[in-house]
């Protein structure tokens, strides 16, 4: 005779772990968890369930109730083992390129030592408003809203900050009113100390992008950054090599004062993906200083960042949406 258990046993191969059943006087009620499934898959699954359960003896009616957990916003951390390698520049351009690729992206500037996103995204001096106690991100003309630690602290305070304080302050930014943003790019403070570790342990990014320059020393620092994420059990999305080769502003020729291919080889050795290289280019610095990140334009810089963003986007799709 059909009962709850026989129905669930029939559903197991169709909707492993997602369906629970009740059976009462000929009526089968199925609760189906559809978290993370596309509409197409949901409809198909519902049809299959109705067909299979409806064919069981004694079942006169099948009800399917779909439930879905609210999907929490995901963070992608951008980190570097030391300062000055272009982590903030890469973060801003990555966020813009991801947004151009169709994602709803926000930017969280957690770099307490030198919050540079307001300048990079052209909203220097604009303070975020708050509703109740929730911060409302500042809109930028690139479609990437921003919340920055710069608005919360005086620059000379940061040096004395410890992990728990920084982790708490970051919470205010991450829990801002991000509206439709499904992804937040997190520009971490440079380095691999207590402040960075607490931030990532507390706010658990989905993955991390490591930025390095081609010099050996910076790559040693990149290794430290990779270890930091390993400690917190956060997967590495890949390595971006910044300031790779010097692009002559006159003839466009790229020369490699630090050699070529070091970061790519290091990524291979460390077993992490290589996401791409950005040349050291006067135009990148000038555009960045002027609040016009190259990823928003149509030049070669935009293409390089689009390629890196494409790889990050692919990684995110493979790892949960
Ligand atoms: N590929 C590049 N070509 C030319 N200039 C660059 C490039 N990348 C970054 N810069 C410049 O280098 C300087 C440092 O970059 P940025 O602030 O992004 O580094 P950072 O690693 O975030 O530094 P910090 O440790 O201060 O946070 C900036 O003036 C920036 O415009």
UniProtKB/TrEMBL annotation:
Family matches, as InterPro entries: Mrp/NBP35_ATP-bd, NUBPL-like, P-loop_NTPase, YlxH/NBP35
Domain of life: Bacteria
Keyword entries, A-Z: ATP-binding, Hydrolase, Iron, Iron-sulfur, Metal-binding, Nucleotide-binding
Binding site for ATP: 81-88
Pfam families assigned to the protein according to its UniProt record, in alphabetical order: ParA
Subunit and interaction comment: Homodimer.
Function: Binds and transfers iron-sulfur (Fe-S) clusters to target apoproteins. Can hydrolyze ATP.
Family: Belongs to the Mrp/NBP35 ATP-binding proteins family.
HAMAP family per UniProt: Mrp_NBP35
Protein name per Swiss-Prot or TrEMBL: Iron-sulfur cluster carrier protein
């Amino acid at each position: 005779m059909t009962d709850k258990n026989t129905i669930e046993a029939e559903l197991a191969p169709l909707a492993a772990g997602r369906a629970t059943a009740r059976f009462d006087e000929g009526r089968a009620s199925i609760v189906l968890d559809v978290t993370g499934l596309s509409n197409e898959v949901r409809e198909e699954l519902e049809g299959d369930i109705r067909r299979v359960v409806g064919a069981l003896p004694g079942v006169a009616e099948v009800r399917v109730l779909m439930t879905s957990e609210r999907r929490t916003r995901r963070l992608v951390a951008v980190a570097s083992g030391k300062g000055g390698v272009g982590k903030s520049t890469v973060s801003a351009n990555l966020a813009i390129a991801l947004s151009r690729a169709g994602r709803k992206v926000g930017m969280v500037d957690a770099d307490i030592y030198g919050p540079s996103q307001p300048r990079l995204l052209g909203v220097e001096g604009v303070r975020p408003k708050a509703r109740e106690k929730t911060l409302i991100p500042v809109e930028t003309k690139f479609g990437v809203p921003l919340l920055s630690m710069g608005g919360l602290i005086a620059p000379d305070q940061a040096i004395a900050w410890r992990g728990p304080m920084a982790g708490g302050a970051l919470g205010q930014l991450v829990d801002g009113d991000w509206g439709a943003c499904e992804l937040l790019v997190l520009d971490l403070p440079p380095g691999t100390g207590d402040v960075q570790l607490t931030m990532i342990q507390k706010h658990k990014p989905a993955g991390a992008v490591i930025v390095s320059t081609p010099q050996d020393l910076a790559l040693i620092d990149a290794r430290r950054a990779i270890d930091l994420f390993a400690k917190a059990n956060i997967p590495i999305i890949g390595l971006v090599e910044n300031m790779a080769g010097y692009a002559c502003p006159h003839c466009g020729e790229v020369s490699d004062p630090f050699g070529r291919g070091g970061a790519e080889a290091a990524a291979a050795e460390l077993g992490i993906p290589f996401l791409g290289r950005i040349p050291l280019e006067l135009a990148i610095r000038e555009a960045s200083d002027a609040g016009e990140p190259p990823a928003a334009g149509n030049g070669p810089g935009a293409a390089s960042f689009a390629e890196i963003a494409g790889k990050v986007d692919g990684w995110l799709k493979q790892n949960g949406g």
